[in-house]
Design a protein that fits this description.
9 helices, 265 residues, six-stranded mixed beta sheet, four-stranded antiparallel beta sheet, alpha/beta, 35% helix, Rossmann fold
Length: 265
């Protein structure tokens, strides 16, 4: 018996006013797998992620988690589903005036009734899981770009999510830090059993961690391909997919952000 997909995106059409970004986007994500959303600049990769976490509403279609429609859920049900999501953004989106411990503790304090001691203990555990034990009292400005990404991941893990979303996690990182972050994402996935959806343009990361690739075609404004990265690279279904895999992924890359200070990845 085939297990029900953890996530189903069904017939999703996304637009900003009269401008259609993508139409009829459909794919499924197996539980515990890693799915990479890729495509040319402006194709709607990050827009799709924002629709999947409810920051944007689709023109039509829906997103389902464990068979329940997130898109059509009422406010209470959607809030309960959001508790099961962990989201990281390109710069980590950490509060600069808070220590790493305070950043990670924030969602735990907001959504649980745990005592301050237990909140602190749990936040320390999440930082340790992402390799940041000993950095609890540091501020985001005191650490490197790679470490800020890991701190963002620690905060995303605060409420033990079932789904982890990453928006260009390797942007601005050097190759060594990027590889270590990929390894950490897989370590966290294996430890928690979470399903992972990642927006990226880094081919090295795609081949290293992705079980599935969803290619968004910027020209046709539709899904151009769905499959494993090696399958799509070996037998690309279109010239656009062939160009992506032969270009090193740079066709879909955003402007590079400056790398963080050399204080360790």
């Amino acid at each position: 018996m085939t297990e029900e997909p953890h996530i189903v995106v069904r017939g999703l059409t996304m637009a900003y006013g009269p401008r259609t970004i993508q139409r009829d986007v459909s794919f499924a994500v197996a539980r515990g797998s890693v799915t990479a959303i890729v495509g040319g600049s402006g194709c709607g990769k990050s827009t799709l992620l924002r629709h999947m976490v409810g920051l944007l509403e689709p023109v039509s279609g829906e997103v389902l988690y464990s068979g329940v429609s997130f898109t059509k859920a009422d406010e209470g049900e959607r809030a309960r589903m959001l508790r099961r999501f962990g989201v990281t953004f390109q710069q980590g989106a950490l509060w600069s005036s808070m220590t790493l411990l305070e950043n990670v503790a924030l969602p735990i304090e907001a959504y649980t009734a745990l005592s301050p001691e237990k909140v602190s203990s749990l936040a320390r555990l999440k930082l340790a899981l992402t390799g940041l034990a000993g950095f609890e009292d540091y501020y985001p400005a005191d650490i490197s770009g790679g470490m800020r990404k890991r701190a963002g991941l620690a905060r995303a893990l605060a409420l033990d999510p079932e789904v982890l979303f990453f928006d260009e996690p390797s942007a601005g990182l050097d190759p060594v830090s990027s590889r270590r972050l990929d390894e950490l994402i897989l370590k966290v996935r294996d430890a928690t059993g979470a399903s992972v959806v990642i927006v990226t343009h880094e081919l090295a990361s795609i081949f290293s961690i992705a079980d599935q690739v969803v290619y968004l075609d910027v020209e046709t404004k539709t899904v151009g391909a769905v499959g494993s990265p090696r399958e799509l690279a070996a037998s690309p279904p279109s010239d656009a997919v062939r160009a992506f895999f032969s270009s090193g992924g740079v066709l879909s890359g955003p402007e590079r952000e400056p790398s963080g200070p050399a204080k360790g990845p």
